[in-house]
Design a protein that fits this description.
heterotrimer, A: mainly alpha, Four Helix Bundle (Hemerythrin (Met), subunit A), B: mainly alpha, 2 domains
């Protein structure tokens, strides 16, 4: 996404090596890159938005069945993952600050920890997916959701077909989110390498800033996914 | 967009937001175990929205953004998302009226 | 009229360095980041797909010459109209003006050296090509038969054609569209020349800005819808599956949320082209500049509010249908405002009937008809009668072909001297414009009548209604004429690249920064960075006697 070229390391007074020829000056380039990432995030809001729309329609129609299905996914793991991502957003913000203030060690460390937290998130997600597979909650021919009570309605059991709808949405939404996470890890790996090579300076660290924007967006999507998928009805 | 906030170091702000986010998560989980009827969803989504706003304004530096354009892009995207959700629901919510 | 011999005594034919001759070789084109070369790469690709879509149209019209289904089988016919629609919408119309004329002209019109993200621009072309190859492969290995609208549950559960592949091809092409829109928005915001305020921008730029908003905010929704359809077919994640309690109408909501604004992606750039042409060939400033500018934005925004008018008879709530019907009337208002402003621009203008202007006149008439028939469709009662008939088919072809495609052709003629450095033969161009106009009306006007009388769309056999044959024959005859009209420019444009008269910098004496540089332009567009101190469409100045003219910006 960032448009910088990997040119020489020497910092010129008049013409910064990272300045691309079609821009009038570094400020214009920086503003363009930033606006570009924000506009891209707007498209991502609409991309996930379609899924939220589907979710909204079916949750309204099949609330009890969705609540039963939601209860069967692991809230503790979901909450942990939320905390993991919040921590990673902090490390991202620290990385940007470190780049702004020429703190190379902190920059590299923050980027590394961000990636570590991202991998942790995916690992926990993997455990959840495995659990769902073992419990036959993965939609498809082997799906089974019999005799699951609807929370708050004793004696009533969830309709397995509607529960399967919940799990379809669960897997598509969290799967798409995880895919974005993986892409984010790729971006941050690249940032890590660039930081290690000392490419970022207080005058130019645009990729860190806009990479950070992307990561925060992925965090925000999860901030909504967590209550919607895990917390439909958790009354004991 | 090199953010120079008015305070000498923005770190305090970042950690404040960080803790607010964690606390918000905790409250959300706790509130989900209470029986608030139809307000369970409102509380959960309300807290989520507060968290999202905090991340957007302070972690993504929109609060200190020198350009109105950034804020306009965010608002425009949210507007169209609400359009999608709202107008679609206008069909589903009124289907049984006749 | 057309001459074959160049005139070697004119110094300008000693070729200056420009974007075409700066570098030679296939790789200098395939790895270019020059927005002008990328525009030409797009020109070649979309013209290729136009032929493919046109080929399917030809087969459709041949089948409909007779009431019986005697040319192809029913399944094949389903594939024909599906592929015609998919190719024409996603691989021709949506990219056409933005990717060719927009890419070429947006940086030049704002005085920039290139778009904000040149490499993303190239990536956008490669994504288009990859999507196109995927679609070609899909068509050659079985095709799709669901209609371009690939409604669930037919597409998800019952069709045995290559829906996932076609869907992914459209997904990739859609990503290309998003990146183009992103590039334009950032470029227009950040890279305008000094002095070029928003109110001095050519309306072509406003139109492309509005188009980009739609591309950015709408395309992701169809992208995720395609993902859901693919997930349902490949992984049995049944989001739209009625057996799981899914709602096929949800698919339609998500599909049309994009696909209605998509038609505005197709028409808005064309309106931008028409505005430039009408101003130039009336030698007048556009009447009501700010109205036209804000109407473009209004069309983009309102266009997102009306999608369920494609679903009036599908089973949505009647109250919701009322709301969408009302909003569909509202969305016509900014388009009408534009038509009034164009007409007012013509009034007391000094009209020149060059080929671009002929296309503009054609646009005015045909777009108005198409738009008005849209209002018929927006009325719930009428829609119940004519939905899924040829009335709808005629309506959207009037807008897409009579409107968008005419604008594209007009724009190609208008800016051809700038793009190629050559003049096309004016006589042949006027003839072609006339043939297109006649062919178009002969093809599509009978379809309004057919639809109103009850001929359904997507039927290959109408032998229970043989009285429809005469109108169908007229329509097919018209399509043949139309095809000739389209072939002519392809021939003489190519001819002109070798034998056409070299073009001066500003053959039309038109307003706009792009005309203040050489034809064809140098790679970085301007020899010196422009500074703008004049309003848009300053035709009074341009037409004033030389001693009264403001000194133009140095090239």
């Amino acid at each position: 996404m960032p448009d910088s070229t990997l040119v020489g390391l020497h910092h010129e007074e008049e013409h910064h090596p990272e300045l691309l020829h079609h821009f009038a000056d570094a400020q214009q380039q920086r503003d363009a890159s930033s606006l570009g990432m924000w506009v891209f995030l707007a498209t991502e809001i609409m991309f996930f938005g379609g899924l939220f729309c589907a979710y909204l329609v079916y949750r309204r129609w099949y609330f009890g069945d969705f609540a039963a299905a939601s209860k069967s996914i692991n809230m503790a793991l979901g909450a942990t993952n939320t905390a993991v991502l919040i921590c990673s957003s902090l490390t991202v913000v620290l990385a940007v600050w470190a780049a702004q203030t020429a703190r190379r060690a902190l920059l590299i460390g923050s980027l590394a920890i961000t990636m570590l937290l991202g991998v942790t998130f995916l690992g926990i997600k993997g455990i959840e997916y495995k659990d769902k597979f073992v419990e036959h909650h993965v939609p498809g021919p082997s799906f089974s959701f019999e005799n699951e009570p609807i929370p708050g309605h004793p004696g009533q059991f969830a309709n397995p077909r509607h529960a399967q709808m919940f799990f379809s949405l669960y897997f598509v939404m969290t799967g798409l989110h995880a895919l974005h996470m993986i892409i984010g890890l790729g971006i941050f790996l690249w940032l890590f390498v660039m930081a290690w090579k000392g490419r970022f300076t207080p005058e130019w660290h645009t990729p860190v800033e806009i990479g950070g924007l992307y990561w925060h967006f992925v965090d925000i999507v999860w901030i909504y996914l967590f209550p919607l998928l895990y917390l439909i009805d958790r009354h004991p | 967009m090199s953010a120079h906030s008015s305070t000498t170091s923005p770190l305090k702000g970042y950690f404040a937001v960080f803790f607010a986010l964690l606390i918000g998560t905790g409250i959300t989980v706790y509130a989900a175990t209470l029986d608030l009827g139809r307000f369970n969803a409102a509380v959960a989504l309300g807290i989520a929205t507060v968290k999202a706003i905090l991340v957007t304004l302070f972690f993504m530096h929109v609060w200190h953004a020198s350009e109105k354009l950034t804020k306009l892009v965010v608002i425009a995207a949210l507007f169209f998302l609400l359009l999608l959700l709202g107008l679609t629901m206008s069909d589903y919510a009124t289907r049984l009226w006749s | 009229m057309p001459t074959a011999t160049p005139q070697p005594t004119i110094p300008q034919t000693v070729e200056r360095e420009n974007y075409l001759n700066k570098e030679y070789g296939v790789w200098s084109w395939l790895l270019t980041t020059d927005h002008k070369r990328i525009a030409l790469l797009y020109l070649i690709s979309i013209t290729f797909f136009f032929f493919i879509g046109g080929f399917f149209a030809l087969l459709i019209r041949l089948e409909l010459l007779t009431p019986a289904g005697d040319l192809v089988q029913a399944d094949t016919y389903n594939k024909l109209f599906t592929m015609h629609g998919m190719v024409m919408v996603f691989f021709f119309l949506i990219p056409s003006i933005p990717a060719v004329l927009g890419n070429f002209l947006v940086p030049m019109m704002i005085g920039a050296k290139d778009l904000a993200f040149p490499r993303i621009n190239l990536l956008s072309w490669y994504l288009y090509v990859i999507g196109g190859v995927m679609m070609l492969h899909c068509m050659l290995t079985g095709g799709v038969d669901t209609g371009w609208t690939f409604y669930a549950p037919f597409s998800t559960n019952f069709s045995n054609t290559k829906i996932v592949e076609a869907g992914l091809a459209i997904f990739v092409a859609g990503f290309s569209s998003i990146l183009t829109g992103l590039n334009f928005v950032v470029t227009i915001h950040r890279m305008r020349a000094p002095g070029l305020t928003w109110s001095r921008l050519p309306l072509f730029i406003w139109a492309h800005y509005a188009t980009s908003i739609i591309q950015l905010l709408g395309t992701p929704v169809i992208a995720v819808t395609i993902v859901l359809v693919a997930a349902e077919r490949a992984l049995h994640l049944g989001i739209f599956d009625p057996k799981l309690g899914g709602d096929p109408l949800l698919f339609q909501h998500l599909f049309w949320f994009y696909s209605h604004p998509a038609v505005y992606i197709m028409i808005l750039p064309s309106m931008g082209v028409i505005t430039e042409i009408i101003a130039c060939f009336s030698r007048k400033r556009i009447f009501g500049y700010s109205f036209v500018a804000f109407s473009s934005i209004a069309i983009a925004v309102f266009g997102f509010l009306v999608w369920a008018h494609h679903m009036f008879v599908a089973g949505i709530s009647v109250y919701s249908a009322l709301v969408f019907s009302f909003l569909s009337y509202a969305v016509a208002v900014p388009s009408a405002i534009k038509v009034f402003n164009w007409t007012a621009t013509l009034y007391k203008g000094s009209i020149h009937y060059d080929a671009p202007m002929l296309y503009a006149f054609g646009f005015l008439g045909l777009f108005t008809m198409g738009g008005l028939t849209g209002l018929f469709l927006a009325a719930l009662g009428i829609d119940v009668h004519v939905t899924d008939t040829y009335f709808v088919v005629a309506h959207f072809h009037y807008i897409m072909v009579g409107g968008a495609l005419m604008g594209y052709l007009g724009g190609m003629h208008f800016w051809w001297p700038k793009i190629s450095g050559r003049l096309y033969p004016e006589g042949w161009a006027r003839l072609a414009a006339l043939i297109v106009f006649i062919g178009f009306n002969l093809t599509f006007f009978p379809q309004f009548l057919l639809g109103y009388m009850g001929m359904p769309r997507r039927y290959y056999d109408y032998s229970h209604m043989p009285e429809f044959q005469i109108l169908n024959v007229l329509s097919t005859a018209g399509a043949t004429v139309l095809g000739i009209g389209y072939l002519l420019p392809m021939i003489y444009f190519l001819w002109s690249m070798r034998y056409g008269k070299p073009a001066p910098d500003n053959p039309w004496n038109a307003a706009g920064l792009e005309w203040k540089t050489a034809s064809p332009p140098p790679t970085f567009n301007f020899d010196e960075d422009p500074v703008v101190t004049w309003e848009a469409y300053n035709y009074e100045e341009l037409d004033a006697p030389p001693h009264q003219q403001e000194v133009p910006v140095a090239r």
